[in-house]
Model the fold of this input.
Amino acid sequence: MRSAPAAMFFLLLAACVGAPPQADDALYRDLGGTAGITAIVDSFLVELARDERIIHHFRRTNVERFRRLLIEQFCELAGGPCTYSGDSMALSHRGMGLTDRDFNALVDDLIHAMEAENVPVGAQNRLLALLAPMYGEIMAEQDVEPLAGSNR
Amino acid sequence: MRRPESCLLLVLALVAAPIHADGSRLLATGGVVPVEGGGGGGIVPWAVLSGYGSETEAGGSVTYSRLDTDDYAVAVYAAAYSWDNRLELSLARQEFELGTLRRLIGLAPNAKLRQNIVGLKYRVTGDVVYTPWPQISLGVQYKKNLDPAVPLAVGARDDADFDAYVSACKLFLASLAQRNLLTCGTLRYTRANQGGLLGFGGDGGTGRELHAEVAVALLLNRRFAVGAEYRSKPDNLGFAREDRWYDLFAAWFPSKRWSVTAAHVDLGSIAGLTDQTGVYVSAQLNW
Done:
């Protein structure tokens, strides 16, 4: 009889430790998990590299780090078992001189990447719905000097 | 040349085709071009600017539309140009074929009521996709009826006037059935009879009034949208009642370069002929 509360305790503890950071990982699963998100990000990087409208913004970008952070960010946003370890959107885009045109071009490229990876329309829209609110934070400080030593 | 407008349309299309500089805005966010020109739906001007130009970009569109109801037909030749996704200049020529009414009142076989519309639209704030608040635009349409004899004979006061409007649009991402839902509300200050094709003001009302217009569109995927519009209108002419307009539309956006729209329209009573329902089709080229 004494083992029942103990079993319950360990069960709850296991549930706490094992729980993903978000309760709802439906979008993470609809995007194909980490493998699917990695494929989307790789397609996205190809689209960006081809995009003459915005490629100049990535001249000093550490592509491997950028790729890892994008995967982390999309995974975390979608409710997957990841933690984004990069800077805030405001900090990482500060002073880049971005315009609405750049922002639109980037979203356009992401949509093309998701189309190329055959992501269902509903999952595409849900990911865009999580990313779109970042517009305000990203575009807020474009007229200032970039922070010295910031690592993109 | 009986149709200089269609020739102009062809020239513009040919000039536009080789230029490869698509705007950056997302597919379908320019809407289509309504009967009065500029960015919008079929019968309602929306807060969005036509084409796909964003900040630092410019671009234009040409559109041919045709509306056939039980007793009438309207052809519309429209062109628009937008700068910076901020300011839009639009031109439209409407040609209203009187059909049944022409025979009833004994006009010449090819008698038409023609109207020119010059529109300006200014985006005041917001982005239809990205900002938490709606995209809001102010617009004016200067309308000049080129064949005012019939409108003036049935009681219209003027052959030319301004409409002014404010429109707000917001795209809700992953909304109904995880599809993106566009909603627009437009408030128009007008005294136009049947959009101006029957002149402006009349024996039943001389001043401008505020009228509400609404539109909803569901993007089933990136390229295909279905929606509905409603437009309240003045009722200034004593000789015949004027009704609200409705439409149900489907629009297809194969690329940013072109789109086609088809709609079922219900224009109610026009110049005494009731229940004017019919079909609207529109084709648009962007560059």
In short: Chain B touches chain A at residues 24-27, 54-57, 85, 127, 129-132, 173-174, 177-180, 220-222 (CB under 8 Å). Residues 4-16 of chain B form the longest helix (13 residues). DSSP finds three helices and twelve strands in chain B.
